[in-house]
Amino acid sequence: MLAIVPLIAVALAGPVHAQDGWTLVLSDEFDGDKIDGSKWGFEVDCWGGGNEERQCYTRSSRNAAIEDGKLVIMARHERVTGSALPAHLRRGAINPDAEATREFSSARLTTKGKAAWRYGKFEIRARLPQGQGTWPGIWMLPERDRYGAWAASGEIDILEAVNLGVPCAKCPGGRENTILGTLHFGGVSPRNKHTGEEVPFPAVLDNEFHTYAVEWTPDRISWQVDGQTYAERPASAWSTTGSDRPGAPFDQPFHLIINLAIGGKLAETRGLGGVRLDGYPKRMEIDWVHVWQRPEVNSPKLGAGGQ
Questions:
Q1: Neighbours of 15 (CB within 10 A)
Q2: Which domains, from first to last, does the chain contain?
Q3: What is the sign, positive or negative, of the torsion defined by CA atoms of 302, 303, 304, 307?
Q4: Whole-number pLDDT of residue 92
Q5: Where are the alpha helices (DSSP H) in 86-147?
Q6: Cis peptide before 167 (omega within 30 of 0)
Q7: I need a surface site. Which of 5, 96, 183, 267 has the fewest CB within 10 A?
Q8: Which is the catalytic residue, given 43, 123, 143, 155?
Q9: Which of 123, 160, 176, 197 is catalytic?
Q10: Tens of pLDDT along 149-189?
Q11: 289 and 123 Cβ atoms separated by less than 8 Å
């Protein structure tokens, strides 16, 4: 396990360059006039993510749009009503048409059904919102639940942060600046397990873009920020599902998700507690998304069906 020390920002900007041994299989620079529907879909519901989050996710351009070459996800303090369940839970539900009303709107974009990858390097350059109750996430879920419902089939959290900028006595500089990289696995909830790191990254508060990445191979997953590796886990740390496949559940295709949640258990139980209403709307900005694979390790990009 790596030591937990404050990370120092390193400038990583500019055009995409070939990386030694890697092939670029997805690139979105967000330089069009609208979100590319061939790459991204929207998850639309008021479920709360299973974490008691307070937002409804919409497909409205008020919550997700391209601005000046950036994908901007905007969380707004406004009353919204929509489906109480996400699409995957509506099927077979007793009341699939049930609705819920929330006090915030936001957006959750995903490559599900469009592209999924088994192994690779996933880089996202982002600027994160601050404030008590904000919970931006860049993460991955399996295209198919091969080993069972969450979290038996796994989850890879490339980047999470909650309550950035709020007073924090134990944080360098006195304000919350922690970033998280986590794996979820094990059994179906509540028998799930997780492993990962939380590290101080003071530069996250400088209102600049930083590059968050995961490098995922059959035998190891590592997390990076601005090119610095701050955590890694060997396959032995997660191969506890009881499967006869030693890399399970992280041996299947996963799709990418980018979202901005408001409230929820992780955010509201930390920092100042709850959700503060100052500073809305909140903005999460994505400069670009790059996905790389090594031909000798990776299968090609998978379409909607996975494999």
A1: 6
A2: 23-37+113-293 (2.60.120.200)
A3: negative
A4: 85
A5: 87-90
A6: no
A7: 5
A8: 155
A9: 160
A10: 999 999 999 999 999 999 999 999 999 999 999 999 999 99
A11: yes
pLDDT in tens, 46-96: 999 999 999 999 999 999 999 999 999 999 999 999 999 999 999 888 999
**Model-wide pTM > 0.85:** yes
Q: Tell me the two tokens of residue 268.
A: 């509201």
143 is catalytic: no
**70: enclosing H helix or E strand:** strand 70-83
Q: How far is CA 250 from CA 169, 220, 223, 224, 305, in A?
A: 36, 10, 15, 18, 17
114, 120, 222, 262 from 70: Cα distances, Å: 21, 24, 26, 21
Tell me how far apart the alpha carbons of residues 127 and 122 are, in angstroms, rounded to a whole number: 16
Instruction: Give the residue ranges of DSSP H helices in 130-262.
Output: none
CB 154 within 8 A of CB 250: yes
